[in-house]
C-alpha cells in the first residue's frame, strides 16, 4: 500500500502503550468517531485503552504504526452500545465517509480480527493456539500445527469482442446492474485456467489473450480479487442459470448500470472504455 501514514508490522510494545489507533469491530461493524461540526468524515478512536470509552475489548492484534502511533485491530464485546460521539458502521457504508487510506487499513484489520476470532483452538487436536511473535500465524501449543490468515483467490474478467463486452447479472444485484464473470480458484488451477473455466461454465464462451489487469483485496471476509482482460475466441452465449440470472453482450455505447466505483469490476470496465475498441 503506498502510504506515508501507515507502516504494517507486528511490533508489540512492552511498556504501557501510549495512545493507540483502534480498528475495533462490533460484529462486522467498525467503531468510528462521528464527524465533528460541519464535517462529514468518520475517524478512528484514539485511546490507550478502549475501556476509557466504555467498550470492552475481547481480543486484539497488532497491525503496525499509523501516524507514529501503535495501531491495532480488536474485537469488541457484543451488546454494548457505541459510546456517545461514536458509531458502529459497516465497512461497505464507510466507503467514501472515511479517509481512503484508513478504509484500506480497515479491510486489513477486519480480516485480521476475523482470523484471530476464528483461530482460538487447533482444528487437528483441540489444544489452545498461541499467536506467533514474528509473523502473522497461530501455533498449536501441543502439535505445532500452523494457522495463517486464510486468503481466498478469485478471478474476475472483462471479456471483449470489438466494441462489445460480456456482462453478467446475479439475482442479488441491484435492479439493472450487470457485472463481470468472476469465480473462485480451484485446487491445482492457474489463475488463467480459472478465468477460462469460469467464462466457459457461466456463459459458454471461449476466451483467448488472457492478460493480468490488477488485483484488489476484498475483505468480505477474506478474498483477493485478481482481475484480467480477455478476448472472445468463439462459442455461443448461453447462460448458466444456476449461477446467473442473465448474461449478455453490451455495446460500449449502451452499457447497463455498472458496479460501484469501489469495485475492481468497475475499474476494468472504465479502463476498457478509455481505450479504443480493437
Ligand atoms: Zn494441535
Task: Explain what you see.
The protein has four helices and 16 strands. The longest helix is centred in the middle third of the chain and has 19 residues, at 100-118. 28% of the residues are buried. The protein is of the alpha+beta class and 278 residues long. It has helices spanning 91-94, 100-118, 191-203, 264-274, and strands spanning 6-8, 20-26, 29-33, 46-47, 57-66, 69-76, 86-90, 129-131, 138-140, 146-147, 152-161, 164-169, 181-184, 206-218, 223-234, 246-251. It starts with 5 loop residues before the first strand and ends with a helix. Residues 122, 124-125, 127, 140, 142-143, 145 line the site of zinc ion (ZN).
At CATH's second level, what is the architecture of the largest domain?
Alpha-Beta Complex
- Percentage of residues in DSSP E strands: 35-45%
Apparent shape: globular
How confident overall, as mean pLDDT?
A: 92
CATH fold description of the largest domain:
Nucleoside Triphosphate Pyrophosphohydrolase
Total number of helices: 4
Distance between the first and last residues' Cα: 33 Å
Biggest pleated sheet: 7 strands, mixed
Spatial extent as radius of gyration: 22 Å
Query: According to CATH, what is the class of the largest domain?
Result: Alpha Beta
Q: Considering DSSP H and I runs of 4 or more, what fraction of the residues is helical?
A: 10-25%
